[in-house]
Amino acid sequence: MASGIAHDINNALSPAALYTESLLQTESDLSQRTREYLETIQRAVEDVGHTVGRMSDFYRQREPQLTLVPVHLNHLVLQVINLTRARWSDMPLQRGVVIEAKTDLADDLPAIMGVESEIREALINLILNAVDAVPNGGVLTLRTKVENGAAGLEHGHVQVEVADNGAGMDDETRRRCLEPFFTTKGERGTGLGLAMVYGVAQRHGGDVEIESARGRGTVVRLSFPMPTTVACAPDVVESAYIAPARLRLLVVDDDPLLLKSLRDTLEAEGHVVMTANGGQAGIDAFRAARERGEIIAAVITDLGMPYVDGRRVAGAVKDLSPSTPVILLTGWGQRLLSEDDIPPHVDRMLSKPPKLRELRETSARCCQPQKS
């Protein structure tokens, strides 16, 4: 069930991911405000994709491998404030309630090594909890600082706090609030928010501290170990390959909205794009193109389609033209890659939601330029 849900969510996210990235890269006259909004949408879509990817824990009993990169907490704090603005500002204002968000960010805060999307999700959860703690208005404060190592310890911790001046918690609630499924919100709560935050801290070798008392608000502090050295994130070199000027591509999927977004995006890149709704339609379109003497530079196909799936599309394409590259674009991509279960006749595989850069690079590496 988790696998199916992940697949459907990745499919639904794909058009938003493609259109957002395309607008950011191709529209040079966007206002600063519009660009910031699109970047926020893009970041949110990517975070949902990472969250969906972690659903694999339910259907694959394997410890997830974390890819750690330098994470700058000051920058992350500003991101989550913008991502949650509707929840702490816009929605309360409709009821005449004012919630103010303040920051107290340490200068020259060192980066930590972590998974940015997980830490961002944890901070978002803490902000939403803090908003619930001030139903009649109040102040949220996000603070970063460095806690030096205790006597005899060489390294300290980088800390980020989310504080509110709400009702606070009694001793029993504070003692149990990290337990899974414990909630004081009744039917509105799942009891998983703080448990998730604690899990994120533990996976990063850190910890969660909570200070709270009735009538004195709450402070939740995440502490992350300060690395001795922070490796620089590798630069993405998009010019590491020669992008073909024009390709004739066949895109096969059973989702009309995804077909349209892929076609729009790839045509904006200068390619000639044919689309087919469903596996059998894709096979028929490929065969008809060959009979007309048209050379399809590559076939991009979904995996899970009714009656004729992507495996059969890939096999039929290779039977008709063994040299034609087949690119599998699927919501099950992370699962197949992690289980080393790439179907036969597939030359490359991409996960949904797709990234425009990945589509460019994959098509460039698979295909030769098309002559008209």
What's the topology here?
Blueprint: H1 2-26, H2 32-54, H3 56-59, E1 69-71, H4 73-83, H5 85-93, E2 99-104, E3 112-114, H6 116-132, E4 138-147, E5 157-164, H7 171-176, H8 193-203, E6 207-212, E7 218-225, E8 248-253, H9 256-268, E9 272-277, H10 279-291, E10 298-301, H11 310-320, E11 326-330, H12 333-338, E12 348-351, H13 356-366
Parallel strand pairs: 2-4, 8-9, 8-10, 10-11, 11-12
Antiparallel strand pairs: 1-3, 4-5, 5-7, 6-7
Helix pairs in contact: 1-2, 1-9, 2-6, 4-6, 6-8, 10-11
Shape: elongated
Cα distance, first to last residue?
A: 46 Å
Order of strands across the widest beta sheet? 2-4-5-7-6
Into which percent range does the helicity of residues fall?
40-55%
Structural class: alpha/beta
How much strand content do the residues show? 15-25%
Count of alpha/pi helices: 13
Largest sheet: 5 strands, mixed
- Note poorly predicted spans: 57-65, 186-191, 230-241
Number of strands: 12
- Residue-averaged pLDDT, rounded? 80
The helix/strand order is HHHEHHEEHEEHHEEEHEHEHEHEH
- In angstroms, what is the radius of gyration? 24 Å
